[in-house]
Amino acid sequence: MSAAASPLEQMVVVLARDLADGELGAAGAAALVPMAAIELARELHAPNLTIGGEMFFNPQPGRLYPSMLDDRALGRCEAAETFIELFGHSHHGLDFFFHSGLQVDVFGNINLHHVGGTLHAPKMRGPGAANLSYCHTSTRFYICPTAHTARNFVEKVDFITIPGHLSGPEAKRAAGLTNEGPRLVVTPRAVLDFDPTTLRMRLRSVHAGNAPEDVQRHTGFDLAIRGDVPQTPPPTEEELRVLQERIDTSGALRA
Amino acid sequence: MDGDTRPTRRSKITDLQEAAILARDALRTRPELCLGGLFKQGRPVALVRALLAAGAGGLHLYSSPGAGYDVDLMIAAGAVEQVFIPGVTLENRLCPNFRSAVEAGRVTAHALDALTVVGGLMASAHGVPFQPIDALRGSDVLKHNPLLREIDCPFTGRRIHAVGPIRPRVTFLHAQEADRWGNLRHLSTMVYADQLMARASDLVIASVDRIVPDEVILDDPSRVTVPAYYVDAVVEVPYGAHPTASFPNYAMDEDHIDAYADLGDAARAGDREGLAAYIARHVTGPKSQDDYIAAIGGTAHLARLEAEARHG
């Protein structure tokens, strides 16, 4: 075990700390960091956290996989479901979910469909989204892209696949988005959250080794940095030990 | 005469070529093809290859909410006109031919979400004119989704969405086992949307890794995932999901899919030779599944995927 945490390990720890005991949630499509966060929370403070909503309950993967939609990644699990249950979970709601995307904008809207051009004449066509109902029906979600550059953090997305806070409180109300929506944006460089009045993204803390001005330089919109920006509390020795010894046994978060 | 005149029940076992012709001819009347499985597992890829070899075009593709390799391959072979699948990706990278074809305007990829697809299949399977959806707000997908309508909830008056029935003309499924009558057993942990598709479609053709004796089904009926009543034809195709996985029998062939994607990326950049050779070698060339298995590296190669499925 090494003392210094990798950027992905730092992301995992920030996310794990925000998940509460007794909650229900799922990892989403890009599962590496979210699944590690869920597992870490279950190991350290949330033993009654239930993983559900993606055709299985409480998987016990032997190591981390980039996708959870793989029988090997599930390892053993307590119950298997089918896509019909998507309606059940959408209507009952999850407590949390995780999203990532080609572009993320200042209001936490996420684009997975196209960059440039239009939907049917795109300059670059993305994958789309296999499940966007949870952005509305899970109480909150986290945005956790594994890259943080001025190219993927843009002022306004070209297409809103997953609605974040749209263009602010007014627009959110008008669209009928009554849930919290995106709570935190956790990247390899920093933690960002949303101003409660304007719902614009702002810099909350920088991970060890990152200066606030560097994070601003790699972000395509104004982060409204005022005064000192705190450092993200690094992983404790226990968090890092449990993560490396019991969850990320193949070192995927350090690759 | 007593027992001797008893009529015989018809076996639904057929072969790949016959299944492909059955599907191709049905799709000529309405080109809506639906594929079982999800992303890199449980995909009926041998049936897809056979259909491409038999000659199909202008297809409208449906699937469970996530697809990748097989959809990209069908696009590379020029067989697809429209895609009605929410997520099309190889997960670790984008689908090269899907991307190129949509960007060039050769294929229309509709913006959809999972509830629309699952709800549309539910409406079809249940014989109702629409499935209500009360879980979509604020996404640009709603502005473009061709299958949704806004309606007033007759009870609360709230604006909600409705999706009409999705009725595939043909559905291809892959399961691990079936009997000769077409009772399917998925032994994988997830069964995706396969059961729903079987009930929603006109014509259902399944490939299985192996046909099992009738007794296997009769001894454990609750293990049957799709009753034979919903299945029109079944084909025994060893490794019929390759290069996707058929758990617990064999894992996905990530190296094969990656090599294919590299050829697709080269085609994007203007060099189509490798992709054309790939299609000749794997799709139009093989006369049988045995030929295909030889083309991908033989049984030694597949033994590695079998070991991976068992041990991770």
Question: What does this protein structure show overall?
Answer:
The complex is a heterodimer of chains A (255) and B (312). Chain A is of the alpha/beta class. Chain A has a single domain, classed as Glutaconate Coenzyme A-transferase. In chain A, 25% of the residues lie in helices and 21% in strands. Chain A contains eight helices and 14 strands. Chain A has a five-stranded mixed sheet with strand order 5-10-12-13-14, with helices on both faces. A three-stranded mixed sheet of chain A has the order 7-6-11, with no helix packed on it. The longest helix of chain A has 13 residues. Chain A starts with 6 loop residues before the first helix and ends in an 8-residue tail after the last helix. The model of chain A has no long low-confidence stretch (mean pLDDT 93). Chain B is α/β, with parallel strands linked by helices. Chain B folds into two domains: 241 residues, Glutaconate Coenzyme A-transferase (3-Layer(aba) Sandwich), CATH 3.40.1080; 39 residues, no CATH class. Chain B has twelve helices and 13 strands. In chain B, the strands form three sheets. In chain B, strands 1, 2, 4, 6, 10, 11, 12 and 13 form an eight-stranded mixed sheet that branches. In chain B, strand 10 and strand 11 form a beta hairpin. Chain B is globular, with a radius of gyration of 20 Å. The mean pLDDT of chain B is 96.
